[in-house]
Amino acid sequence: MTKPERYKHFVEYFSKQQPDAVTELHYGSPFQLLIAVILSAQCTDKRINQVTPALFERFPTPEILAASTSDEVFNYIRSVSYPNNKAKHLVGMAKMLVEVFNSEVPSDINDLQKMPGVGRKTANVIASVVFDAPAIAVDTHVFRVSNRIGLTTNARTPLAVEKQLVLFLPKDTLAIAHHWLILHGRYICIARSPKCETCPISWFCKYYERTHTETALLKAEALKLKKVKEQKKKNALNKISKELKKRSE
Ligand code: SF4
């Protein structure tokens, strides 16, 4: 199967099966989404959704968060990963929003990345989810699943994956493809043990094709060896029986 064919099947399948895929993070405004995405780095969306209601209630605006301290923010996010750093990032991000961006979340990916705690992945999420920009954020799920399916080739960094996805995916599917890949990676194409046997897209997955071809070849080889052994055993027994027969004559 060629790469363009794989992309075609990918877009057709998910457009039909998950036309409304969205982020599982809970938020009510671009500011809240920015906070949630910063917090979600190396943490689960489920955990983030547990801490954000109280956090959003205490810090409803960039001004209020900017006027706070990382120590106070820490108390609200202590159960997420890297709470110390993230608390500092949130306060720093809010300060910059207030001082540089007039308390509005910027739409430009470069502007977004100027803020503490905002890397390329977070910036792409905000740009695509909030501003409908033709961008795709590459997190660990997107990275792994794209490679496994065969949407990317020899892409060893998130940026390389992003570039290949942007090159091949139709522009109007970039934002939603991010969610398709994340959800597929979270529930089916799991890092340690992908559920290939029940995966609905195995028929166009490169990893599946390769691993199952290898397995089939190994099985065929084992069967061949078994038959050769059995034949040898049979021949040896025949020989012995012939000799015994000769001696008894
Ligand atoms: S067949 Fe397996 S490796 Fe391929 S996408 Fe499905 S779960 Fe992932």
Q: How would you characterize the overall build of this protein?
A:
This protein has 249 residues and is mainly alpha-helical. The chain folds into 2 domains: 3-187, Hypothetical protein, domain 2 (Endonuclease III, domain 1); 205-249. The chain is built from 12 helices and no strands. It has helices at 3-17, 30-40, 45-58, 62-66, 70-77, 83-100, 109-112, 120-131, 140-149, 158-168, 174-187, 206-248. Helix 2 runs antiparallel to helix 8, helix 9 (140-149) packs across helix 10 and helix 9 packs across helix 11. The longest helix is centred in the last third of the chain and has 43 residues, at 206-248. It is elongated and about 110 Å long. The protein starts with a helix and ends with a helix. The model has no long low-confidence stretch (mean pLDDT 93). Residues 148-149, 188-189, 194-196, 199, 201-202, 205, 207-208 line the site of iron/sulfur cluster.
The residue ranges in which pLDDT falls below 50 over 5 or more consecutive positions are none
Percent strand: under 5%
Radius of gyration: 27 Å
Biggest β-sheet strands, sense, barrel? none
Straight-line N-to-C gap = 66 Å
Helix content estimate: 55-70%
Number of H- or I-type helical stretches:
12
